[in-house]
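User: Could you check the structure of this?
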Amino acid sequence: MKQIYTTTLRLNLTDEDDRRAYEHLQQMDKKKYRSYSKAIVAAINDHFDRQNRLASDPYLETREKEDAFLQRVMEVIGQGLRSVPAPVLQFAQSVPQISAPEPDDEELSAALDFADSF
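Assistant: Sure, the predicted structure tokens are below.
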């Protein structure tokens, strides 16, 4: 059996997806991917591994979209907080923080026993 298989990759630069793929190959990190072959192998494996994960977990894509949405919400909140006037921030920082007491070993053990009962 052959140990090395050679194939040709043809990219049509008038096609948007092909053009983007070509640009990625041109701009790839040469230290991370020593050749087009290494980059293409990584992309193919990643694509089909993801397809298999989606087939075995139909909600994976939904969770990823929710995570991306939450990340965007957090970024917008962070941007909003950076634009808050200084006196409001000073007031918010002067409000005392209330922290819950640390549970002891007995409470943790009871909580774990309760969780194991399901």
